[in-house]
UniProtKB/TrEMBL annotation:
Record keywords: ATP-binding, Nucleotide-binding, Transport
Family of the protein in this entry: Belongs to the ABC transporter superfamily.
Gene3D superfamilies: 2.40.50.100, Nucleic acid-binding proteins, P-loop containing nucleotide triphosphate hydrolases
GO cellular component, one term: ATP-binding cassette (ABC) transporter complex, substrate-binding subunit-containing
Listed name of the protein: Sugar ABC transporter ATP-binding protein
Domain of life assignment: Bacteria
Example of a GO biological process term: carbohydrate transport
InterPro entries: AAA+_ATPase (IPR003593), ABC_transporter-like_ATP-bd (IPR003439), ABC_transporter-like_CS (IPR017871), ABC_transpr_MalK-like (IPR015855), ABC_transpr_MalK/UgpC-like (IPR047641), Mo/tungstate-bd_C_term_dom (IPR008995), NA-bd_OB-fold (IPR012340), OB_MalK-like (IPR040582)
Pfam families (UniProt xref): ABC_tran, OB_MalK
Organism: Phyllobacterium phragmitis
GO molecular function, one term: ATP binding
Amino acid sequence: MSFLAIKNLYKSYGTVPVLRDINIEIEEGGFLVLVGPSGCGKSTLLNTIAGLEPITSGEILINGKSVAGLHPSQRDIAMVFQSYALYPNMTVAGNIGFGMEIRGVPKAEREKAIKSVAETLQIGHLLDRKPSQLSGGQRQRVAMGRALVRDPQVFLFDEPLSNLDAKLRVDMRTEIKRLHHRLKTTIVYVTHDQIEAMTLATKIAVLKDGVLQQFGTPAEIYNSPANMFVADFMGSPAMNLLTARIDDGPSGLSVSLDRPHGEPLALPVKSVNGASSKLAAYTGQQVIFGIRPEALTDPDGADRKAHSVAEGECLIEVVEPAGSDTFAVTNLGGKEVVARLRADANIEVGQKAKLAFNLDKAVFFDPKSQLRIG
Ligand SMILES: Nc1ncnc2c1ncn2[C@@H]1O[C@H](COP(=O)(O)OP(=O)(O)OP(=O)(O)O)[C@@H](O)[C@H]1O
Ligand SMILES: [Mg+2]
């Protein structure tokens, strides 16, 4: 049974719809990440779960029970806000213990809980400081500590890492993952950072304009994006999405991509991600061919386990060494295409180089509906 279920949820501010028919279910101990561009409704959805915002229609169930009409304090959830919202006049210990103090938890018990949480978050030495005497990362830990002492049914996090610098973000991401592994409490986590979503989630919900675009595991979202928006949003550098044509020839279906020089590049589509039977209906028509940079490599760097790898000559326009890899830019289907090569790949600007297309990893989209074919 799902532990947190959101069913046919609609939310409007006045007459403006902000969330439209959201359906999401997550198991106990799951880590649900809500991801999407600014203004898509992530915080609003989190706030409806918390009970901070009323819903227009639909249902939210926690542990099988509807939370309709329940005040935030009755929902057994703990929330970490983006702004942290620490009490500036209280010490770290006071901030962490405040909720317990309000509930009348005896002092000794409170101190024990504060100490234990502070140790988990490695802020035990900061308990007597005020928030103004802390770094951004330390404040963030205090805000987390305040939620962690609660031991609630569900944690809600709204972009908790967005105020931190890049290095600290990565460190804290690892710590949150470790914490979740240890506590095994259900988490709903909002971010607009797709890498955070991929690394933390057991399930990801991708939102756009208040509409759920796809709900699935990180691997499902990454490998089988439901539409071009999801394909483009998840992954860095982004998936190459190229205009192409499906042709039927003596050796079966192929996908043709225009090149700036010479004949179009034709790739066989025998076993592309289960899409080939549906692709036949597009013979002679345009499709959008999606291939991630890491599925487009130098021939020696191609995935040896791939079933279907095709090679094609591409004119290299830009070469960008990035330490661990080298990115090369070419042009196919009238668009710039990024390929991810080995760091020591022998490649130069102006060269017509053979690139390997891992077609196991390719996806196709209908140019009109923008939905994945297959
Ligand atoms: N109290 C409100 N009254 C009216 N409209 C609101 C209110 N709060 C949010 N909105 C609108 O609802 C939409 C969704 O806002 P929300 O804060 O949920 O977005 P978000 O996905 O969290 O964005 P961000 O990544 O920028 O935090 C936006 O268009 C926003 O302007
Ligand atoms: Mg928000």
